[in-house]
Design a protein that fits this description.
Monomer. Associates with 30S ribosomal subunit, binds 16S rRNA. Belongs to the TRAFAC class YlqF/YawG GTPase family. RsgA subfamily. With about 375 residues, the chain is an alpha/beta fold. Among the domains are: about 80 residues, OB fold (Dihydrolipoamide Acetyltransferase, E2P) (Beta Barrel), CATH 2.40.50; about 160 residues, P-loop containing nucleotide triphosphate hydrolases (Rossmann fold, 3-Layer(aba) Sandwich). Helices cover about 35% and strands about 20% of the residues. Strands 10-9-8-11-13-12 form a six-stranded mixed beta sheet, with helices on one face. Strands 1-2-3-5-4 form a five-stranded mixed barrel. Strands 6-7 form a two-stranded antiparallel ribbon. α3 crosses α7.
C-alpha cells in the first residue's frame, strides 16, 4: 500500500519547490500504481536515465513504460526540473512516471517530422538576459517572451553587462521596455554589482528560475554574482561578441538564498510554438489596438477603420513592431498546422499497427461461404 505524501513545511523536498500541486499530482500517480513510489525532482537528464533528487542525488534509469512513451513522443521523456515518481528495482532506482507538468519551456521542432524539445519543466519564472553591449535584439527578445508566456511561466527581463553600454545604456533600456510592456525589468552588472540586490529579492526560496539568453549574455556571471561564488562556469566572449557555450547540458542548481536555477545551454534560435496566445500577450499593445478596429477580421493593411494602421500613421505604434507581430503570428500558425499534420500521421500509423494482428488473422481464415471440395 502506498503512503500519501503530505504537503508540510518540513517535507524533505520543500527546498526543491515541493508544494500542494506537486503533492496532489504525486498522490494521483502513487495511488494508481502497484509499486511503492517516492517523489523526486530531476536535476539532470540523459538518454535512458536521469539524475533525481530524493532529496539526495541518485542515478535512475527510465522504466519500460517511460521509455515507450518517450519513443512515441520525445517530449514525454523526463527533463530537467520535472517532478517524477520513482521506485526501487533491486539495487537501482527507476523513474516510473513523470508527474503533470507546469511552467515549461518548449523549443519548437524545425523539421516537418521533428518533435518539439522540452528545455525545462516546473518553471515559475524565466529571467531573459539581454546584454547591453550586444543589442538589444528586439525580434529575439519578443520571441523569448512569446516562448515563456506560451509555457505558462512568468517572464522577467535583465539588461546585463550594464557597465559596458556607457552612454548608450538609457537608450538600450528604453528599447527593451518598448517591446516588453508589463514585464519587470532589471538593469544589472555582475562586474559592478549594479541592480543585483533588487534582482536577488525576486529569487525567493523554493521558486524555480531559468535564465534564458544567447551565449555571451552574461547568465553564468550573473548567477555567480548573486550566489557570491563560482556556482556556474563562465567563458570568454569572442571577437564577434558571441559567447562560447559554457553550459553544454541542463542541470538544477540551488542558490544560497534558497531559489532554484535550472541551468540550460544558451540558445541562438527559437521558433515560436504553435500557439498564438503567447505571441499576442507579448504584443499586447498591438492586440489592444486591434480590438478597436471596425472589422473583426481586419488584416491591418488597408481596411477602413483600422485602429492599428491609424496608430502607425500617428506615430503611436512602430511599423516594425507591427510587422514582427504579423511575422510571429504566421510562424505560430504554421507550426501549429505542422504539428497537427504530424499528430494525424502518428495516429494513422498507430491505427495501422493496431490493426495488423487482426488483418493477419482474417487473411489466414477461410471464408465461411466457401464450400469444401
Amino acid at each position: 500500500m502506498n503512503t500519501r505524501v503530505t504537503d508540510t513545511p518540513s517535507h524533505p523536498l520543500t527546498a526543491l519547490g515541493w508544494n500542494s500541486s506537486v503533492a496532489a499530482a504525486f498522490d494521483s500517480v502513487s495511488h494508481a500504481s502497484e509499486h511503492l513510489l517516492v517523489p523526486g525532482r530531476v536535476s539532470a537528464a540523459r538518454r535512458g536515465g536521469s539524475v533525481v533528487n530524493l532529496p539526495e542525488e541518485v542515478p535512475a534509469d527510465h522504466s519500460p513504460a517511460v521509455l515507450k512513451a518517450a519513443r512515441r513522443d520525445p517530449t514525454l521523456a523526463p527533463c530537467t526540473g520535472d517532478w517524477v515518481a520513482v521506485r526501487r528495482s533491486g539495487d537501482a532506482w527507476l523513474v516510473e512516471a513523470v508527474l503533470e507538468r507546469s511552467g515549461t519551456l518548449v523549443r519548437q521542432g524545425i523539421a516537418k517530422d521533428s518533435h518539439d524539445q522540452v528545455l525545462a519543466a516546473g518553471v515559475d519564472h524565466v529571467l531573459i538576459c539581454e546584454a547591453a553591449d550586444q543589442g538589444p535584439n528586439m525580434g529575439r527578445l519578443e520571441r523569448f517572451l512569446s516562448l515563456v508566456r506560451t509555457g505558462g511561466a512568468t517572464p522577467v527581463v535583465a539588461v546585463t553587462k550594464a557597465e559596458l553600454a556607457g552612454d548608450r545604456l538609457p537608450e538600450v533600456v528604453e528599447l527593451v521596455r518598448s517591446v516588453s510592456p508589463g514585464v519587470d525589468l532589471h538593469v544589472v552588472s555582475a562586474h559592478t554589482g549594479e541592480g543585483l540586490p533588487e534582482l536577488a529579492e525576486r529569487l525567493r526560496p523554493g521558486s524555480t528560475w531559468v535564465l534564458l539568453g544567447t551565449s555571451g549574455a552574461g547568465k553564468s556571471s550573473l548567477v555567480n554574482a548573486i550566489a557570491g561564488g563560482d556556482l556556474m562556469d563562465t567563458g570568454e566572449v569572442r571577437g564577434d561578441k558571441r559567447g562560447r557555450h559554457t553550459t553544454t547540458h541542463r542541470q538544477l542548481l540551488l542558490l544560497p538564498g534558497g531559489a532554484i536555477v535550472l541551468d540550460i545551454p544558451g540558445v541562438r534560435r527559437i521558433d515560436v510554438p504553435g500557439d498564438t496566445e503567447g505571441v499576442d500577450r507579448t504584443f499586447s499593445d498591438v492586440t489592444d489596438l486591434a480590438e478597436r478596429c471596425r472589422f473583426r477580421d481586419c488584416a491591418h493593411e488597408s481596411e477602413p477603420g483600422c485602429a492599428v494602421r491609424a496608430a502607425v500613421d500617428e506615430g503611436e505604434l512602430d511599423l516594425r513592431r507591427l510587422e514582427r507581430w504579423n511575422r510571429l503570428r504566421r510562424e505560430a500558425e504554421r507550426n501549429r498546422s505542422r504539428g497537427d499534420v504530424r499528430l494525424r500521421a502518428e495516429r494513422i500509423r498507430h491505427w495501422k499497427n493496431a490493426d495488423r494482428p487482426g488483418l493477419r488473422v482474417l487473411r489466414t481464415r477461410r471464408p465461411a461461404w466457401r464450400c469444401r471440395r
